[in-house]
Sequence to fold (230 residues):
Amino acid sequence: MQRFWIGNGINKNKQMVEHLQHYGVISSMKVAEVMETIDRALFVPDGASAYVDSPMAIGYNATISAPHMHATCLQLLEQNLQPGMHALDVGSGTGYLTACFAIMVGPQGRAVGVEHIPELVASSIKNIEKSTAAPLLKEGSLSVHAGDGRQGWPECAPYDAIHVGAAAPEIPQALLDQLKPGGRMVIPVGNMFQDLKVVDKNMDGSISIRSETSVRYVPLTSRDAQLRGY
Ligand code: SAH
Fold:
């Protein structure tokens, strides 16, 4: 697994962001700002070393992605997370990226998380309530829902940005349908070997797909399969 640093001595969120800039993972000021604003420590299990560049177990056979993966996805989606835009976070887990999306699209935009483990939905809402995204949750531009994310979240479609935080065997059609022309989806695709795919819906509705990098995510699957351990 790729890892840019180990967390010894890194105990501050800002330093984590500076590392990501130093290693070239973050080049955008906006992405740096949002990752500074949303403190990762509020989203990892109590006592876990929040700023280590590593995924971490969050229960229910799920993980919070490593900081460099969160940063990579924010960078890839930056143009589609402008104020007023709509963003969907499938497999929202801890709620970390949903909170980042909400800050970027702002109060006139819409950030929606969909997660199929109800306990994670509940804990993600608690995490967000402690973060700087709390007012957006209260005012309703940010929401997290329990559901099968393979179906997307039609109520707030179409989306400028869709992020999928779990690896799909193939790109779900419902998510393609809910992507706006000009919209972008970032989704890990594969089983054992996975690629982070960047899926652009062109203005004429056609789809362009490229592979960004090899990744290792938990599967986008049914709740039963996940709780059985896949
Ligand atoms: N971006 C999240 C990633 C969590 S791991 C974070 O960094 O916190 C992937 C998440 O996808 C898990 O929480 C898992 O429960 C969820 N998941 C897997 N399959 C799903 C599905 N079909 N519908 C909704 N959520 C799903």
User: Anything to note?
Assistant: The beta strands are 56-59, 62-64, 86-90, 110-115, 142-146, 159-164, 179-190, 194-201, 207-215.
